[in-house]
Each structure stands twice: as structure tokens, then as C-alpha cells.
Amino acid sequence: xxxxxxxxxxxxxxxxxxxxxxxxxxxxxxxxxxxxxxxxxxxxxxxxxxxxxxxxxxxxxxxxxxxx
Length: 68
Fold this sequence. Notes:
The structure is a single chain. The chain is mainly beta. It has a domain at 7-50: CATH 2.40.50.100. Helices cover 9% and strands 50% of the residues. It has one helix and four strands. It has one helix at 40-45; strands at 7-18, 22-29, 32-39, 53-58. Strands 3-2-1-4 form a four-stranded antiparallel β-sheet. β2 and β3 (32-39) form a beta hairpin. The longest helix has 6 residues, at 40-45. The model has no long low-confidence stretch (mean pLDDT 93). Keywords: Molybdenum. Residues 2-67 form the Mop domain.
């Protein structure tokens, strides 16, 4: 598979929490946990499982910076 998004982070799936329609998939990327919200159907289609590997692909049009 090829994708145009530049922000691709490879990691290990450390948690999958399914809700009524949406799942939260947690991916450990070098000690940092990234959480993605995807459909339960996508979890099944991608055959995601804890311990498996996956990419977190980030596509954003804006990055904001804030301070206290």
C-alpha cells in the first residue's frame, strides 16, 4: 500500500476498546501512545489485534500552538 500522507508512524497496537459503533485503537510509537478513533467495522476489516503492528497516519490541515 502507498499513501500520500507524510506523517506515518509505525508502532505496536497496545489496546483496542470497542464502543457501540466506534473503537479507540491505541498504538505505541517508541513509548508515545497515539489513539485513533475508527469504526468497529474497520477494526474487523483491518484485522487489528493487540500485539500487532500498525501505522498511525496523521493528516491535518492545521497545527495550533498554545501556552498557559
